[in-house]
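Researcher: Good morning. I'm working through a list of sequences from a screen, and I'd like to move beyond sequence-only analysis. For each chain I'm collecting a predicted structure so we can compare shapes side by side. This is the next one on the list. No need for commentary yet; just the structure.
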Amino acid sequence: MKRNSFRNKHSNDADLTRPLVLRCNFHSSERLNAFCRDCQKVLCTVCLASDHRNHDWCELKKAGDTAHEQLLEVLHDVNSKWLLHLDVRAEQTESILEEMEQENEIMFREIDSQIERIIHFVNTIREKLKTDVKSRLETAVDLKTQLKSKKDNLVKLFKHSWKVLQKSKIPDVIQTNRHLRQMVEELCSYEFAFPKSRIEFKKGRIDFESLMDMIGYNEKSSVSSEKQHILCNLHDIESKWTLQNKFSLRMSKIEAICPIGEAAWIYNSRVKAGGLMKNNGEVIAMHNLDFVFFDVTKTEDDELLMSDPGNCMVRSIGPSGRSECVLDTSPSHPTGLCVSQLNSDLLVCLMSSLEMGCQGERKVARIDRAGDWKQTIEIDDVTGERLFQYLRLVRENFNGDVIVANKVTSHSHNIIVLNSIGRLKFKFKGTDSLNQTVYPSDIRCDRLCRILVSDFNNHAVLSIHPEDGSVLQVLTMDGDIPSPARLGFQGNRLWIGYDGNKILIVNVTSKHREVRKPEKETASKTCDIM
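Model: Good morning. Structure tokens for this chain:
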């Protein structure tokens, strides 16, 4: 995007222009006034003329300004991406640890049950089995410890960097900039690898030569991929939806919800107005717009962005409601948009025409903070066919997937899920358990990467698996949620706009359900708001 709001926010925190008396350690009478890029050292005139002759150098002021700018960018990257990334990974690891503990209990019971039949053979094998099972848990515990250590180190250096930045001592700024950038580079290359080894049991005949096969122990890596392991994780997790509040608004129709802290901006595009409201319905502020928007998102600094398809642009909305163009998309019309929670990129749906059935441009573009176009998603690279018919919404999941609400015909919709490089994973059109075809009026994602869909046709909110598109749960209220139109999700709080002008706020908590074998599981996936 055209301006860096992080820089605007912190541009006055430090002043590198004020005079500082910096003396050379080797020539005490000489001031430090140069910086050697080759040696990464601060120099005086004598050092520069002697030991660093013919080196690439610049004035100390210029080097300080560059380091100051780079350090701000790294601090922003740490704050907006890596701390969040570590939190998400820690939460996923905690969930896997809980699952492993339950798996261990089941495995221990099966081990003991089978070994009793051949106890005179398998005392040694039993200990080996338990050791292997425990090792998987220990591996995950080690991973959790590593994540905590890396986060603690990053937070410590992050706080230290801010202190250095505020003191404005140029050598310290340069050194801290280098250290923090090095830590971020290490995080980029660090693999958050969950243990893939699985232990399987199967029945076998009692025979000494085939004892290992009879017990059913397989120490090889599971045939199931990590993706299938995650499938098991999410299917064993159920969510509880607790009602926090519900109220009605004066506006006739809710067309956008954008949570900000404990409140949320709620808009009606047709009347070109909206308001910031507390979770009890109290209005804090009001906006009157001078254009008709299509979709709303927010940056990491809580700045609102709106797509304006009529004028072929994306606008930012100031506190007073005054809009400013931050992205000119002409001649394409922007519809759905979102800001990535992983790297602050802007994802925007672009169409050459807003007419249904047009064979023109239909694509999703990824644009970074500097305004550079990084990615375009338009064609299925396997079939060579266009992916989209009419782009309505785009969202990015915490695993990097791109999720698109696509209108196929006037009465047919689907959800298209692509991985981070734009390759198709699956299309969700609904299931036999739903009364009607799905109409995704809005889409959000939670920290476990589950896809939450407000289904206007089926009067419910669907929780969809991010890897296979299976329906994990169906959220209803007293039988249904009449015509859910828009969602807003922040933390564990879900805002639901439904039945025209009504708001429903629920707290979402997740826990492991009792583990059962899939073929015997008969529990309903429908969940009512408590």
